[in-house]
C-alpha cells in the first residue's frame, strides 16, 4: 500500500487556494477537479489536495487525534517570523524540541493543524 494523496479539507476552496499560495508559498498544480478540489504543487512526491468541505475543523492539538502535515524548513525561526507577519498564529510561543530537531505547529484558517520543522543535520535523509 502507498499513500497516493494527502487531502486537506477546507470550507472555502477559493480562499484556501489564495491562502496556501500567498501564505505558504504553494502553487496550484491542477484545477481539473475544481470546484471540488485542486492539487497543490510542492517538493514531495505525494500530492497535496485541497478539498471542499462543509465546515471547518476544531482540533485541539496534542489532545485530539489528528493527521498533521509537517513542512521541513532550513531556518525555522525565519519562517516563523515570515508567517507571523502574514497573520498566521503559532500554537506555541517558541519551537518545541523533538528527537529529530525542533518544530512548531500552526493552524490554517480552516482549523487544519500543520507543523514546521527544522531537522537536526545528523537526522537528514
TrEMBL record:
Signal peptide (from-to): none
Protein's name in the database: VOC domain-containing protein
Alphabetized Gene3D superfamilies for the sequence: 2,3-Dihydroxybiphenyl 1,2-Dioxygenase, domain 1
Record InterPro entries: Glyas_Bleomycin-R_OHBP_Dase (IPR029068), Glyas_Fos-R_dOase_dom (IPR004360), VOC_core (IPR037523)
Superkingdom, taxonomy of origin: Bacteria
Record lineage: Bacteria, Bacillati, Bacillota, Bacilli, Bacillales
Boundaries of every VOC domain copy: 2-119
Amino acid at each position: 500500500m502507498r499513500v497516493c494523496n494527502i487531502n486537506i479539507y477546507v470550507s472555502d476552496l477559493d480562499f484556501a487556494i489564495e491562502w496556501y499560495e500567498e501564505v505558504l508559498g504553494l502553487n496550484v498544480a491542477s484545477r481539473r477537479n475544481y470546484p471540488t478540489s485542486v492539487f497543490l504543487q510542492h517538493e514531495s512526491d505525494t500530492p497535496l489536495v485541497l478539498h471542499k468541505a462543509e465546515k471547518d475543523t476544531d482540533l485541539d492539538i496534542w489532545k485530539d487525534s489528528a493527521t498533521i502535515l509537517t513542512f521541513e524548513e532550513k531556518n525555522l525561526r525565519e519562517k516563523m517570523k515570515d508567517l507571523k507577519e502574514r497573520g498566521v498564529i503559532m500554537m506555541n510561543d517558541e519551537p518545541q524540541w523533538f528527537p529529530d530537531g525542533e518544530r512548531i505547529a500552526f493552524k490554517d484558517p480552516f482549523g487544519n493543524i500543520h507543523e514546521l520543522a527544522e531537522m537536526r543535520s545528523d537526522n537528514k535523509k
